[in-house]
Amino acid sequence: MAEEQEGWVVSYNDETKIRLERRETAAGPVGMRAHNHFEKNALISSKAGLRETMVGYYTSHGRDPFGAIPLTFVVRTGSCDPEFARWLESFEELRAKKESVWLVKPGDKANQGKGIVICDSVEEVREAIDSKSRSWVIQKYIEKPFLIHKRKFDIRSYCLLAQDPAGVLHGYFYRQAYLRTTSSNFTLATKDRFVHLNNDAVQKHGDSYGKYEAANKMSLSEFQLYLDAHHGRDCLSIHSGLLPQMKALMADTLRAAGNKINPHSIQHCFEVFGFDFMVDENFRVWLIEALAEGLAGMSLLGSGGGRLNFGVYVNLSFLSSYMTCSVTQDGGNAADAGTTARLQSDVAGVD
User: Fold this and answer.
1) What dotted CATH number matches 71-141?
2) CATH number assigned to the domain with residue range 11-45+145-342, chosen from the 4 options 3.40.50, 3.30.470, 1.10.4160, 3.30.420
């Protein structure tokens, strides 16, 4: 393990990353230290990193990555980047099918909807990616989302990745996912951020924030009641329909990054990731992005739309709220349909 090797120390550990340095260390016993981040968490928590991690993993297992994440391109040198030319080809192909809406997002760890531009033309995309020298992702917008009362939503779900003393990674799924709703009816006739972006940091500035759901949040139980009332004939179930897809995508993500996320084998690492999912009109789940939440920043939906904030302590009651979904570092193929199906065997009822 890195911290047992002479001269290696963790010199920095903030809310988003840790850093290793070689230093002269004094002889003597060292107390056990836990680190609430993995060294290479950007493989999951940055938009560009997630795209490359998932594409590498799925293609190595013979699967189309863009059946799990929307079609996404990473550009690092603006419109001069060869990936931009490849995006242009896809843009023209999809525009011929009357699908022309894309999202341009910062490729690093920007969150809260910052820097996201809604585009439906080559000129808009080019202007966005040339506006600043940084990595950008160009991601296909889901133009036919599943709606609640004609409004768009996404699902925020949490996952804990922890490493045991033997160096084995374990993933845990938090049952109490919740929906983040918009306050305006969905339409492609506008690029209004209040219509298209579910980020709370965006929605809370709208005049209708909290008008339909408290804090624009809905629990899974409330969502199931909506499905029963408005889609009864379709027999849509969160328990058997949505959760298995979400957990399989989470497990694939953790497996994709598993053998690279802790390259110096730092002991006693753990991290909470927030996963954002979209659901399309066919009740298919898409992984949009993942964030390095950190326990201090983790907030979950409480009764009456309020929010429950977890402290920074990890204790048995906290862990008991998670359920394991097996994660390996040895290239286990969760992308295989049979494997992903077995990951769902421990699912409890919707809370």
Assistant:
1) 3.30.1490.20
2) 3.30.470
| Closest by Cα among 67, 56, 24 to 286 | 67
State the DSSP string of 244-265.
HHHHHHHHHHHHHHHTTS-TT-
Domain boundaries, the chain: 11-45+145-342, 71-141
270: tokens are 């753990």
The C-alpha angle 153, 254, 200, rounded to 5 degrees, equals: 25
- Looking at residue 315, its pLDDT comes to 31
162-179 pLDDT tens trace = 888 888 888 888 888 999
List pLDDT tens digits, range 55-88. Answer: 999 999 999 999 999 999 999 999 999 999 999 9
Residues 6+ apart with CB under 8 A from 213: 181, 222, 305
